[in-house]
Here is the input.
Amino acid sequence: MAKISVSTLLKKKQNGEKITSLTAYDASFAQLFADNGVDAVLVGDSLGMVLQGGDDTLAVSIDDIAYHTKCVRAGSRDLFVIADMPFMTYANVTQSCENAAKLMRAGANMVKLEGGEWLYDSIRALTQQGVPVCGHLGLTPQSVHVFGGFKIQGRDKEQADKMIADAKALEAAGAQLLVLECIPSVLAKAITEAVSIPTIGIGAGKDTDGQILVMHDLVGISAGYIPKFSKNFLLDTGNMPDAVKKYCDDVKSGAFPGPEHEFN
Ligand code: KIV
Here is the structure.
């Protein structure tokens, strides 16, 4: 059993302690992250871009995520491991349950699904059957073609109100964690205050209950492009363990993300 559980993460929110999280795709980095202060890792479908070299995440399969989840779990028994449900693997309740089971059997502690209120029935079924669920709102990369690109979401009032309602619906369905990606900081703060489950932000400002980064962005090797919301922690530290420690320290102290990493 991982040292960190959904209860640990919830307690952190209740105590005002920040949650530290990174993506991970293999055993060596999972071990390094476990040894240097990371609470939770996400086996993200971002692997379609950073490992497989794709332009988006849509080509990632459930077998890809199951394989990398197994690798990550082999790296550390202690880490809380969240595994992404890829594009079109949770289009209905039956498909959601079958595919989530593959990831849980591969070693995940929780699965993550992108989307709002329409996921209500799937999340209810998953949690009733013993699968903890993380929601994901904002710039949900599996919908990149609907958005017309990787664009900040929730900037107008109608979108923002809908996102707050979606967050409440996900919590009501049974989700125990919520990722908020690339939204204005004020909206992330409002969502974080509107739900009692922890929120983890990426490009969502400093007021979420925790932070997550794609690990390649943390060390400045994301195809030559560092997103505005990220920071190369290797520059100041010079080695991987210290870069991870510094990231965790800065998240916990509130030094990261700074105003320069936020969207309005
Ligand atoms: O796939 C991923 O890595 C993600 C994070 C960016 C949150 O969903």
